[in-house]
Amino acid sequence: MTPQTKTITGANGNEYTYTCTPHPAEEGVDLLPVLLTIGAPLLGAIVGGGAGAKTKGDAAAMLDALEAGGGEGLDAELDGAAIAEGVRAFAVEFARAGGSKLCKKMLAYTIRDGPGADGANRVFKVGDKAGFSAAYQGNYGELIQAIAFAIQVNFLPSSRVDSGNGLMSRMTQLLSTLRD
Questions:
Q1: Who wins on pLDDT, 113 or 167?
Q2: b/e per residue, 69-91, with b = 16+ CB within 10 A?
Q3: pTM over 0.85
Q4: DSSP string for residues in 52-66
Q5: Most exposed: 35, 49, 62, 143, by fewest CB within 10 Å?
């Protein structure tokens, strides 16, 4: 598949161009159930108003329903307690899946291009240890957006890659507000 690009603004206000190439099939197939397990509780809380997804199949069914409806399920009133429980469950599953190691796996085929601290242009793979640390120390909002972009490129057909109004953007916006 063809690499895709997206501009993401970092915590420092600089814009970075991300180029993501889809993972090889074996790696993508191995990552998908991990991501569904991590995301199911949070997605279930957001979409189901608290009912939550208990299995990977539930999460996949919810995603299908949201995609078919253009993501309109996210416009409904949200249950704050259910969201909090979904975030807690997300954090537990994320830690079980490896935390930063999982992030680096997700970003293994992603390049970040933009100004460094000295103003000079820097291009590096954000899935590498040095690149990951340089890009995301104290910059977790950009990390969340980069991972959401990698998920889009790898697991959503290109015709559905988010233009800023769809499911992935709304999920990213919600997760970003949790840090404020």
A1: 113
A2: eebebbeeebbeebbebbbebbe
A3: no
A4: ---SHHHHHHHHHHH
A5: 49
